[in-house]
């Protein structure tokens, strides 16, 4: 995600616990490989594809009740974290149920209630560039193709441009990352779009 921040950023990755081991099982050690050309080694690309396929299959097998339970546990965990409680400004994704992502609603609602400044991702273009825009009112959200993920409008109701975190004097203290899978040390596997690089 091309969201530069000017202070050390605390990153919390969350995924249903049933999935936490998937990434390391399917990608034993290759996650640490970096080719000298700065491109992803073919072997690693293939291992990631295989891991994505396996994880998506596991996600499909979770029931709605399991998803809701795991999301509730993750929300409880996040809400109890000092990093969260201390954060004045947070980046948070708006989960997509169709993609079986961890539900962020409760954290977002709590953050807004607590007066934390929230920024959410908005896809810029087909090159996976994205911005983090300020969100203070859920009524400005609409589903945007092709992924049908909720995004805020570019402007506030009064027509002024919605604030981009990069133009803000208060950088993100905490970022809640969407991801397909995470291992127990927090290493993340995304959907392959490269937006989070
Ligand atoms: N909720 C949410 N918001 C987000 C992200 C995200 O992962 N989750 N993104 C994080 O960067 C950005 C959007 N990027 C996305 C990239 C791919 C897909 C997606 O649906 N991928 C399909 C495969 C599509 C294909 O292969 O053509 C999939 O993974 O099944 C969704 C969002 C910004 N906002
Ligand atoms: N080991 C690596 N060596 C060099 N470049 C890498 C390596 N891993 C990833 N990259 C670079 O990062 C980009 C994103 O990698 P990848 O598509 O696997 O990300 P992801 O985990 O799916 O995350 P997301 O798609 O959400 O950003 C790749 O296109 C590649 O340019």
TrEMBL record:
Entry annotated with the keyword Metal-binding: yes
Top-level enzyme category: ligase
E.C. number: 6.3.3.2
GO biological process: folic acid-containing compound biosynthetic process; tetrahydrofolate interconversion
Cofactor section: Mg(2+)
GO cellular-component term (any): mitochondrion
Entry keyword set: ATP-binding, Magnesium, Metal-binding, Nucleotide-binding
UniProt feature coiled coil, ranges: none
Keyword Nucleotide-binding on entry: yes
The reaction(s) this protein catalyses: (6S)-5-formyl-5,6,7,8-tetrahydrofolate + ATP = (6R)-5,10-methenyltetrahydrofolate + ADP + phosphate
InterPro entries linked: FTHF_cligase, FTHF_cligase-like_sf, NagB/RpiA_transferase-like
Gene Ontology MF annotations: 5-formyltetrahydrofolate cyclo-ligase activity; ATP binding; metal ion binding
Sequence similarity: Belongs to the 5-formyltetrahydrofolate cyclo-ligase family.
Name of protein: 5-formyltetrahydrofolate cyclo-ligase
Natural source organism: Pleodorina starrii
